[in-house]
Amino acid sequence: MGNLYIVAIICFLWLVLSACSETKSAPAPTPKEPESEATVLVDVDESANETQKSSSLPVVTNEEAKQLATDSLKNVIQTFDILGKQEGWDSEEKPADFQLLSPRLKEFATSSLVATKLKTIATSYYCQCDEQSIPNLATTVRFKVINNRPGQFSISAIQPLDEKGNGGTTIYLNMKYGKDGWKLNEWDEMTYRQKPLDISSDEYLEYLKKITPNEAVSFNKETTIEDEHGNQEKILLFKDDSGEFGVLAKSSERINEVQEDVPVTLPLEDNDVDLNKVTEVDASVVRSFTETYLRDLTEAINLNEFDRIQHYFEKDSTLFSEQQQLVKTLYDRTIREDLATVEVLEWTSKEANSYEVKTKEVMNITINEHTEEKEYYRVYTIVHENEKLVITQLESY
Questions:
Q1: Where is the TcaA protein NTF2-like domain (predicted)?
Q2: How many Å apart are CA 53 and CA 49, to the nearest integer?
Q3: Final residue belonging to a domain, choices 191, 220, 241
């Protein structure tokens, strides 16, 4: 009996130990599962935070955008003028003290704009000349809000030529919202040679009312004139107290003596390469195309306007998407880029209408007020089709 009792105890203990062993070896969730769940939760939280951040930023109406943009440029100009007068600054005799200007300008403009474009303007702003360094939106027409998002917006407007030769441009301007409210973040101007104004009669009359509100001017008709080389130009004919005068639609240039069917001498155009009509690719075309693209790229980044450069790429290409994302990313990270220099090191023909272009590019990269100069070496593959040049490949080397 004693032996049977001992055997029974041993069997009981064995059963207990077996049960414990099975419990310990039961399958448990692998580490990857909770990690995966945690990752999903983090992603959701970040997305929610981003949405919440965007929803907390203000969105402006068209009228508010116009007022904010106009006031910001006006305040920057007044800061230059008032401080310059108080200090007696002169570009030749007594250059501006930017250490004094900078904090005043930061009340109306972002730190990166103050440290770059406005700092450069300060070196020549107080010259004894009629050059207009900063546009005045108060006398512009065709005002449009072209990019209105929470915490930032962009506008465009055209500035007709004035009697001093300033204007004839399309202005693009970007405003950004920060802890101190709305501030001017960037502006850029394209001349009528780069982007024809094609001003209408109503727009020109609107412009005249702003600069000479008491002058009576009426529109007569739209016609074309021929220059001494046989080129046709659209012209708008107006009449004021002095008689009839014309305005070239392309540039808004005023011509006081106009006779239809009589060739006229139009203002001389710069001998720039016309990249909208490339009939033959040579060294000057390659150089102009490369520099124009890079300047447009930096302005696209600083203005958050990919539309500025989308025509350089094939619409549905990978490069199109990559450059679109690049513009957005750098703008969102408040990284400003300015082209210092570009050098075409070599260009060769790959095929009948394809070219390989090697460049050395020097960029000034600004984050807040810190600017660093960086060099890039790149290879572009450019295709010539339908009198246009398109970038199909872009690599660093």
A1: 285-395
A2: 6
A3: 191
